[in-house]
């Protein structure tokens, strides 16, 4: 048996292959359990900063990337002790530099590069999930305090830091694929090509700057109802490039942040009152005493309604040869849509009852009621 395991196959003993296979099978069998244990261990370390979250929240985020990382790490550690079979070490590329130095790229180098890229991806994956967890911790804290500004901060910088990690990951991939010299040349070339790069990415940079302006100036927040560029709806997300708005028609509008900064934005959520303006056109044959009685009844109804603010206006605004125009303007502290619509309905009923009690009828051929409400 000892002689069998000592036999050489492709430059390595059968014992080495057996040990490697046993280790890989073992880590594959316990990878989920070990990943959960590592995630739980890390959660216990940061528990005092994540009091509003449970261990399962972190485990769910880190489980898959940790499994991938553990299996890959163990595989690389075991393979590192093996001698690569020279029979399979084919030359994939052979070239010569300008200085006359010959460059050879073999299968062993290719596999080593492939494993390095896979390992880098696993580390980046774990870091991205950690950013997700940190943002989740901060979101839970800010939800408890009901501070929308801080919640917006978390969403914004979560995307920002993930973008930074991805950029750094791409730079590292370039370094692995093409060497550190290319990265140094790219960094050195940024000074020369900065103007061209800035011109090519002008809109993207403007939108990124716009996102910072929105965050620090705070003209609106996530959850606010806004009007901008002819669209009205609720802000659902403020990203690095654009702001997403769910319109009143339930469509999903994406507006570049530069436009959100440059345009006139009406933040409906910050209004303190809602205003209603009604213009009611009556027939010019309506007697004056009837009009005065209707105006008196309207004023009396609005005075008794506590939801209507003081200072409302009910008057005969103007008249023409065909119509008398009654104008009704009032303000209310009710901001929610459903109660506001209920109030408008009741005020309209006040007007209808006043007309009925005084026997004033709207002309059958021409009836104009203009309603301006905000």
UniProtKB/TrEMBL annotation:
Question: Where does the record place it?
Answer: Cell membrane
Q: Does the keyword Chaperone apply?
A: no
Where the protein is mainly located, per its record? membrane
Spans traversing the lipid bilayer: 20-46, 66-84, 113-138, 159-178
Q: Provide GO CC annotations from the record.
A: plasma membrane
Is the keyword Protease assigned to this protein?
no
Q: Which top-rank group of organisms is this from?
A: Bacteria
Q: Which residues form the Mechanosensitive ion channel MscS domain?
A: 204-269
State the Gene Ontology terms under molecular function: mechanosensitive monoatomic ion channel activity
List the keywords (alphabetical).
Cell membrane, Membrane, Transmembrane, Transmembrane helix
A Pfam family matched by this chain, by name?
MS_channel_2nd
Membrane protein topology class: Multi-pass membrane protein
Q: Which InterPro entries match?
A: LSM_dom_sf, MscS_beta-dom_sf, MscS_channel_2nd, MscS_channel_C_sf
Protein known as: MscS family membrane protein
* Species this chain originates from: Chitinophaga costaii
